[in-house]
C-alpha cells in the first residue's frame, strides 16, 4: 500500500512537468479538458486501473491500450506524456498525477474547487447560486464545481472548499440539534 506522502512525492514533479509543457505550448486548458476526461475514465473503471498498475503487464501492452483509448482526438503532448509514464514505470500513479495537474491548473487560473454533496441533483440556478456564494467567500476569480449525490443527506447540501466545510444538510442540522439536546 502506498502512503499519501509517497504518492504526492511522485505525482508532484510529473504534474508540474505536464503543466510546464502545456504552458510552453499555450495548451493548459486543452490538456486540462483531456485530463478531466481521462480521469473520469480511470475513476469509472477499476479494471483499467488494475491493468495499468499491474507490474506483470508488458509496457507495450499498456502503451497499445492507451493509444486505443486516447485515439487521435487527445492532445499529442498528453498522449506522449502518458506513454512516458509507462516507460518510467509511473503509470500506476496516473490518477494522482492528473489530479495534481488539475490542482496546479486551478491555482494558475485562480480557481477554487468546490465539492458539493447534495441529496438530489442540483438545478442550474442552484449551482449558479452556490458558485456566487463560493466566489464571495473565497475571493477567487472562478469556481469549479464537483457535484456528488448522497441520498442519506435527506435534503440540503454540504459544500467543501479546501479545508472549509459548510454543512447545510438536513442530516447535519439534525445531528447538531441532537448534540444540543444531549448536552442539556
Structural write-up:
Helices cover 62% and strands 15% of the residues. With 184 residues, the protein is α+β, with helices and mostly antiparallel strands. It has a 4-stranded mixed sheet with strand order 2-1-3-4, with helices on both faces. The longest helix has 21 residues, at 4-24. It is elongated. The mean pLDDT is 83.
Outline of the structure:
The protein is built from 8 helices and 4 strands; from the N terminus they run ααααααβαβββα.
Oligomer: single chain
User: Approximately how much helix is present in the residues?
Assistant: 55-70%
- Please give the largest β-sheet: 4 strands, mixed
Give the structural class: alpha+beta
Query: Helix segment count?
Result: 8
Low-confidence stretches: none
Distance between the termini: 45 Å
Q: How are the strands of the largest sheet arranged?
A: 2-1-3-4
Q: What overall geometry do the principal axes of the alpha carbons give? A: elongated
Please compute the radius of gyration using only Cα atoms: 20 Å
Q: Give the overall average pLDDT.
A: 83
Q: Strand content of the residues, in percent?
A: 15-25%
The total strand number stands at 4
Strands, helices and their partners?
Blueprint: H1 4-24, H2 28-44, H3 46-53, H4 59-70, H5 76-87, H6 94-108, E1 111-118, H7 124-138, E2 142-149, E3 156-161, E4 164-169, H8 170-183
Parallel strand pairs: 1-2
Antiparallel strand pairs: 1-3, 3-4
Helix pairs in contact: 1-2, 1-6, 2-6, 4-5
Amino acid at each position: 500500500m502506498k502512503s499519501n506522502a509517497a504518492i504526492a512525492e511522485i505525482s508532484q514533479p510529473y504534474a508540474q512537468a505536464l503543466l510546464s509543457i502545456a504552458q510552453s505550448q499555450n495548451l493548459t486548458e486543452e490538456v486540462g479538458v483531456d485530463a478531466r476526461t481521462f480521469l473520469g475514465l480511470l475513476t469509472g473503471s477499476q479494471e483499467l486501473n488494475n491493468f495499468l498498475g499491474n507490474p506483470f503487464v508488458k509496457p507495450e501492452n499498456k502503451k497499445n491500450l492507451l493509444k486505443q483509448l486516447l485515439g487521435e482526438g487527445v492532445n499529442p503532448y498528453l498522449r506522449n506524456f502518458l506513454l512516458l509514464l509507462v516507460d518510467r514505470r509511473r503509470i500506476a500513479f496516473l490518477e494522482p498525477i492528473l489530479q495534481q495537474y488539475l490542482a496546479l491548473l486551478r491555482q494558475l487560473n485562480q480557481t477554487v474547487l468546490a465539492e458539493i454533496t447534495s441529496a438530489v441533483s442540483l438545478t442550474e440556478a442552484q449551482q449558479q447560486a452556490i458558485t456566487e456564494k463560493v466566489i464571495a467567500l473565497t475571493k477567487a476569480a472562478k469556481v469549479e464545481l464537483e457535484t456528488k449525490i448522497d441520498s442519506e443527506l435527506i435534503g440540503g447540501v454540504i459544500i467543501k472548499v479546501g479545508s472549509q466545510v459548510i454543512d447545510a444538510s438536513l442530516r447535519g442540522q439534525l445531528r447538531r440539534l441532537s448534540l444540543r439536546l444531549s448536552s442539556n
